[in-house]
Design brief:
Helices cover 34% and strands 29% of the residues. It has 385 residues and is an alpha+beta fold. It has a single domain, classed as 3-Layer(bba) Sandwich (FAD/NAD(P)-binding domain). A hairpin with a 7-residue loop joins strand 9 and strand 10. The chain is elongated.
């Protein structure tokens, strides 16, 4: 078995890369440690895709249900500051799209089933000289010879460990809480984000489902507020605050899921034939929903470098390909991570003067067309490198 690219991790980004490369007749294979997923009980977790990420999926024929966000209202819950972002301001149809995580994952996985090895993982890698394929030894002792190994295996990447790459990590000391809800918002394409002492609260429209929940909530809460109660108890006690702030009814319609929030990144994405992509290379706070979009931007740059080299029919220099990918993506990802950390610190502060500046800043940006367009263009993925 001799694919050009061996992909560790059969999640969304790994399967996207496999599908895109194979559409260009560049052979790849996916190594996935879990069993093949055949069914799931409940759709709760969602992803927010910018138009660039959605276009990448459209280009490989992925068709799942999305909801469209045409406007986002960002509010300071402790003051009067606000920013209203609209797709019309950048002459775009939509700002973003909401999709169920399970729907997207299974659509991509189904497309790559024939090229996926389940219930195994990469145990060892033996590098060879220059551009010769490396030898990959799987946990079931099978061997693969491959030019490149893409680590798309998440935060605790096995590929990063095999390459002895050490992450730089941070703890937000927050918990992300998510659930679906029935609401009475009149505009089906409007999303809200509220920054308050009760947490960072985002509510977005779900893909249309008759008689089903209409919105998804992603709520980041400081851990100290959860020390003496469960996440669900906290939600039920505090949801009325956001109902009043938004002038709407928000009724929980699913289980309440939660996970701790950390960030991480690597000073190097590349080691020999190995490269880290998406969540394997970096993770950020979910307040702007950009984690998955950074992953798709990584995957696009990685695939572009490989496809361009093959289309030019030059000798494939895998180290050059990987270095060009790293240069394109590492600094952009780190900039986004630091930007999210800055906003988290600003909006969780109890300092009166910072709160005043926060309100002034939000309202000031809202009145400045140039700044608003800059932020929107960046969020929707137009600033491609």
């Amino acid at each position: 078995m001799s694919p050009v690219v061996t992909i560790s991790g059969g999640g969304i980004i790994g399967n996207y890369i496999s599908s895109r490369l194979n559409s260009k007749n560049i052979k790849s294979i996916v190594i996935e440690k879990s069993k093949e997923d055949v069914a799931y009980n409940q759709n709760i977790r969602t992803l927010t895709l910018n138009p660039f990420s959605k276009r990448l999926l459209d280009d490989i024929g992925i068709d799942v249900n999305y909801s469209e966000i045409k406007q986002i209202n960002v509010l300071d819950g402790e003051g009067t500051g606000s920013i209203n972002f609209s797709a019309k301001e950048i002459n775009s149809d939509n700002l973003s799209y909401v999709v169920f995580f399970n729907d997207l994952k299974f659509a991509l996985q189904k497309k790559e089933l024939e090229r996926t090895l389940f219930q195994t993982h990469i145990k060892d890698i033996k590098e060879h000289k220059d551009n010769d394929p490396c030898e990959i030894i799987l946990s079931d002792e099978k061997k693969i010879y491959s030019n490149l190994i893409a680590g798309c295996d998440g935060r605790n990447s096995n590929i990063a460990k095999l390459a002895s790459l050490e992450p730089i990590t941070g703890d937000y000391k927050q918990t992300a809480i998510t659930f679906t809800a029935l609401t009475n918002f009149e505009d089906p394409n409007l999303a809200f984000q509220v920054f308050s002492e009760k947490g960072i609260f985002a509510i977005m429209p779900l893909p249309a489902q008759k008689g089903k929940p209409t919105h998804t909530v992603v709520w980041s809460v400081d851990n100290k507020r959860l020390e003496e109660q469960t996440e669900e108890d906290y939600v039920r006690k505090n949801i009325s605050y956001f109902e009043k702030k938004l002038g709407a009814e928000i009724n929980i319609h699913s289980d309440v899921l939660s996970f701790n929030l950390f960030n991480h990144y690597f000073e190097n994405y590349v080691s020999g034939s190995l490269v880290l992509i998406g969540d394997a290379a970096h993770s950020i706070h979910p307040l702007a929903g950009q984690g998955i979009n950074l992953g798709f931007a990584d995957a696009d740059a990685f695939c572009e470098e490989i496809v361009n080299a093959y289309e030019r029919k030059i000798t494939i220099d895998k180290r050059l390909i990987l270095k060009k990918y790293e240069i394109r993506r590492k600094n952009m990802n780190l900039l986004m991570l630091k930007s999210m950390d800055f906003f988290v610190d600003i909006f969780r502060s109890d300092n009166l003067y910072i709160r005043m500046l926060r309100n002034i800043g939000l309202s000031g940006v809202n009145k400045t067309k140039f700044l608003k367009k800059f932020f929107i263009n960046h969020a929707v993925g137009k600033n491609k490198i």
